Amino acid sequence: MDCFFVAVAVRGQPQLEKVPVAVAHSGNAGSSEISSCNYMARAKGVSAGMFMQTAKELCPDLVVLPYQFDAIQRVSFQIYDVFFSHTPFVQAVSCDEAFLEFGKGTDGMEKAKTLRQEVFERTGCAASVGVSFNILLAKLSSRKAKPDGIYQVGDPDQAAKFMLSLDIQDLPGAGVKTRAKLEALGVEDIRQLVSMTKGELVQSIGKALGEMLYNYARGRDVRPLSMESNMMRKSVSAVVNFGIRFENWENATVFLSALGEELSHRLRNLKVRTKCITLLIKKRAEGAPVEPSKFMGHGICDNFSKSHVLTEETDDQVMIGKICIELLRQFNFPSEELRGVGVQATKLVSHTQSINQRGGQLFEGWLVDSAQSPAIMTSSHPPREPTASEQDERERKTEDELGVDVNRNDFAATTFSQIDTGVLEELPEQLKREILASYGRVAPSRTVKTSHQLPPKRKTNGKTLLRRKHPAQNIFDSKSNSRLARAIHAPIEESRKVDALNDIRMSQVDSEVYYSLPFAIRNEIDRYAKKRKPTSKVIPIPRPNVPSDTSPKQVLDKKLAPVLPSIEDMYAKLVESLPVAVSNNESDNERPVDNIRARSAAFDAIYSRISIEVENRTLDQALRMLRFVRRKCLSTSTCADLADVLKRGFNHILTLVNQDIRRNFNGALSLRLVAPLE
After folding, report:
1. Do 472 and 516 form a contact (C-beta atoms < 8 A)?
2. Which of 17, 44, 67 is the last residue of a domain?
3. What pTM does this model have?
4. Are 317 and 260 in contact (CB under 8 A)?
5. 86 phi/psi in degrees, rounded to 5
6. How many angstroms separate the CA atoms of 113 and 149, rounded?
7. Number of separate domains in the chain
8. Residue-wise pLDDT tens digits, 172-209
9. Of 97, 200, 262, 493, which residue is the catalytic one?
10. Which of 202, 398, 605, 652 could form a disulfide with 210 if both were Cys (CB 3.0 to 4.6 A apart)?
11. How many CA atoms lie within 13 A of 331 on its CB side?
């Protein structure tokens, strides 16, 4: 947008269209700073950041308008509504600037004209549009298009000529220090920069910056559009750079504690916690005046920062304040030399997601599979007393399920998570109370299930054994889907707040079942097995032949990071399993179990691969994989049966990925980004 703050302020005031206008806090205070000004004011030397006194000397007829933050926010939303109505591929840069991507064959100039017209009709503000085939050229073209115009760089030949017309300072990343290094090499313009080899640039200014400027000078930019920033903010800050004048160390610590309290308040409002605290300091530069030209301003300063990474995310104001005070102590600056203080929180984690909670939710759906044991169905009627034969059968089933020798009294050697709660619920009341008392538990009270309420899955902390006695269920079968949905969405009762995964022992896990699990779930089991705190009071049996974590073999295994398969290879395996699965027009019930397992395993593997990207917070990669699978599912659908299998499989993957994103980012992928198959 052109002079965005000014454009919003002058809407509906045609008398201000032909006069120099600026937006600032005050038009009378000489030390008030210009935030934005229109092109007529710029033509007279006025610029953003200039003191009002200087601006009035350069332009006596300057009209100063106040900020209109509510209107600015409203107009910004309207602008992005226009953007998303044309394409889902939008990378937000600021409140008035964004990159938009369109498919091949799109007429860039016509699309730019349409966007400009719609933005003006919705907001009354003019927009400038740059059109090109990569992010760098689109950005530079938009600068060329200002004010109120369109500029296009259509092909590489035109890009080469366009780049030669620019200055080095126009390139992103070419700051004052970088330009000084280039000038020391005799490079003063783009043409001289293009004449340098990549090796010369890398040797002179470093590998990353040298390679970037080598490509930028030639109009090359391979960066993809990034939409991750649209999902969740990456930092929260509380910064004060005005009026900082500490007389002693006590003043500084009191202020930092208050700043930590403010940051904590902002984190809680956003429902996030932080794992990294950064202290930002402005210190009066050596030789700078003690009192700057702007009253109580920071003046000429040197900027410093220091970070502290937490072992666990937090939003506690006391902890944040203590960390900031300790970081300030490490700087060892005189308190009276400080001119600006800020606290920044990064590595944000949503309240609804943490590592342990995340693992519990994923693994819980597998633990409470209703195929292993019936869920507890509560009723308003009292339970029927079992007959003697039923009692014997249930006791025999308990003995088989738990692997307990009933002739020995060794309840203490069995964790509560090993008990089948379905069996426990149907035992006689006296026996059930004795079992619960032996574990220090209180018998759960029954609740009434009305016709409009869903029955709770469990009423205690109990979970079934990891060892399965039945084949793994097809997660893409409609019945399995409903079970999985209940496992994900059903609320966890207060009595299950203790993390039952801490009771998992690797000795309980059937190795055959373990290695048939998806990669992501096996990782969770491994993590909990390593981090588990012992919950039993029984002394473990020593195992002399088990290598320690520091053995050469385990150290070598830790260094060898697994190579993840590509989504293309995983989809190819899915396609290989499909012709067998849908052959002869058989129904799901008639098909061999192995074929159904192969199909389910292929879809499950694809979901697990995408979920790893979500956990790693690389949403761009997750979105790319989802779009690839969706596109392939559409193009591979050669018959009705195959199309139905692919549609149900992809839609289920999309649902699970959205649930993962909701837990990690408090949001979900928009239908404009990736839509289910219909």
Report:
1. yes
2. 67
3. 0.52
4. yes
5. -105, -30
6. 9
7. 4
8. 988 888 898 899 888 999 999 999 999 999 998 899 99
9. 97
10. 202
11. 25
